[in-house]
Amino acid sequence: MTLRNQVLIWTAFLVVLVLLLWLFRSILLPFVVGAALAYLLNPLVNQLQKWRFNRPLATTVVLLSVITIVLSLFFMLVPMIGQQIIELIQRLPGYVTDLQELFARWAPEINEFLGPERAAQVQASIADLARQALGFIATLPAELVNIGLTGVSVIAFIVLTPVVAFYLLLDWEGMIRGLQDLLPRETKGEINQILSDIDDSMAGVIRGQGGVLLIDAAYYATALSLLGLNFGLAVGIIGGLLSFVPFVGAVVGFGLSMGIAVVQFWPNYWMVAAVAAVFLVWQFVEGNILYPKLVGSSININPVWLMFALLAFGALFGFVGLLLAVPLAAIVGVLIRYGVSKYKASALYQGQNGGSDGDANTV
User: How much is the pTM?
Assistant: First the structure.
């Protein structure tokens, strides 16, 4: 089979896959989360098998343990967090009004520092940003209905997700063998190398970045609560869970925290500075210690490409698209890097004579 035919076949396969995802997007949520859960838990099941557990028993033990932990955390934390989030949403218009009053009180000093024209622009920008934020919050319940987070779908999600995860874990090795048998024999080794790179990227996304996300949420919620910030638990959870989008989690959490801190603690500069330090210090720790250790270079996705993927898949597939965006972006990144390496090894890139050492050194 020629390279051209292989490219056409794989392109057609990708187009059909995207069409199927779009067609069934309204029912995919429990299957996507169940598959991610199975992928996440498969190493634990494999470890139990090494300890002489059979596959069904290992799957049952791991899944029941995870469900028990999740339910325990749900009943302990969700009522408290949910109450804080509801109260925060109700209180946000008041915080915006208080910030505007403080800004008006500081207007003479700000005018002197920035100049009247620039100060007016800053005040208009803050007011516009506040209106947009409040408008988003007002439409949030309707948006949740639009993406399918209604009572029936939530119940179906809770019931189906563990079932999907259980059966995928149970037959994981059989599925892998089945896929291996379907690979073309001539290019099986090369495809397996690509699949190995994809597996590394997926591990970085689901296990590594998922771990960073949970640690971020726990740190922000704990630190802000210890500082006595109003709604610190809710703000920390929101900022942490949004950190899967580059910079968005830190920016949203920092903005909410600083707005609340200024209203709550002013004129105590030290407390406002302490709230700012919670985010600034952790951004250094996350970028230089936590992210390299847990995720490493396995994802290797440019933040701009990642944000584009989130917006594009979110527009195409809704909430399910947001869940699929990062893993699919990681897969596409692996395929693009493979395509670039093949292109650089081809006659189209190197020329008829395979290029020269001098040319290679100047590229």
Answer: 0.67
